[in-house]
Write a structure and sequence with these properties.
The protein has 300 residues and is of the alpha/beta class. It has 11 helices and 10 strands. It has a 6-stranded mixed β-sheet with strand order 8-7-2-1-9-10, sandwiched between helices. Strands 4-5-3-6 form a 4-stranded antiparallel β-sheet.
């Protein structure tokens, strides 16, 4: 059965989400990174990114132990790392080391109290870009970033500038315009320097050609070779996530089931809205046991 595994990024984390995490995985995080996950407060980006990533990799292990392998993988922002792990590109320990470095670089680059992200629903990307152009400037940097759906666009930059864009969006008839619950700035050219530093870090680790189709954030398309995949891992934080394009491509892959790993539930819905014939399983909703039950049932 042809499946796509979807890996959300930051924003849907919640206290208690690591309740079922195997003790060995929690210990591995501490062993590799020196960070102890407490599963209570996710305001710290390092703990947040490590917690989401280890949770997703543990679920990948459970799916594979049950005999499943993805036909395709797609990660949203931070989710690219667990997606690469699922495609057998990089080891679990190396993912943790790289993700810790990524989070530290992002956290140090811009004050999270002053920089962040917002989301606008109900306007096209062109409309959002026109609003951004009215606000963006040397002291008020802001850009249109992730394209999650045709009329769902995020904006990244200085919070005062984001709020100004959100206000303009509401005046123009947006159905929703709000700041996002992410502890760091992401998906903006402001992080180009961080991306280069992360690429240097990534080169220290052994990477392998993907054993599943990989949909890249930075251009929205399938990549078949290791070099563009590695570029996506290191540089996606300096580009918009072209999720809407990624899902358009996914609908052409003759997929039967979309499995969304924790802690999110939105990505599989976005794909299903494009292709109703693709069944979906959100592990945050069903849990791993019921998720495996449904996979076995649908395979028969």
């Amino acid at each position: 059965m042809r499946t796509i595994w979807l890996f959300p990024g930051q924003g849907s984390q919640r206290p208690g989400m690591l309740a079922g995490l195997p003790a060995a995985d929690r210990q591995l995080v501490t062993q590799v990174t020196g960070v102890e996950l407490d599963d209570r407060d996710y305001r710290d980006s390092v703990k947040n990114q490590l917690a989401i990533t280890i949770l997703q990799m543990a679920q990948v292990d459970q799916l594979k132990k049950a005999g499943w392998m993805p036909t395709a993988v797609a990660g949203h922002s931070l989710g690219v790392f667990a997606a690469a792990y699922a495609a057998n590109v990089i080891s679990k320990a190396d993912v943790l080391a790289v993700v810790k470095r990524r989070a530290q670089l992002m956290q140090a680059a811009y004050d999270p109290a002053e920089y962040g992200m917002g989301v606008i629903l109900g306007l096209t990307r062109r409309e959002v870009e026109d609003l951004v152009a009215q606000v963006d400037g040397p002291t008020t940097p802001v850009c249109a970033s992730n394209q999650n759906a045709p009329t769902q666009v995020t904006v990244s930059g200085k919070k005062t500038a984001i709020k100004a864009v959100l206000e303009l969006a509401q005046q123009q008839g947006a159905t929703k315009a709000k700041l996002l619950n992410v502890p760091v700035l992401s998906h903006t050219p402001l992080l180009a320097g961080v991306a280069e530093q992360l690429a240097t870090t990534l080169h220290k680790y052994e990477l392998h050609a993907p054993q599943a189709l990989y949909l890249a954030n930075y251009n929205g398309h399938l990549v078949h070779e290791l070099d563009p995949l590695a570029y996506d891992l290191s540089h996606n934080l300096a580009y918009p996530v072209y999720w809407d394009t990624m899902m358009d491509v996914a609908t052409e892959l003759d997929l039967q089931v979309a499995i969304e790993l924790c802690p999110g539930t939105v990505l599989s819905k976005l794909l299903s809205s494009k292709c109703h014939k693709i069944k979906r399983i959100s592990l945050a909703q069903y849990g791993i046991d019921d998720g495996l039950y449904l996979l076995d049932k649908w395979q028969k």
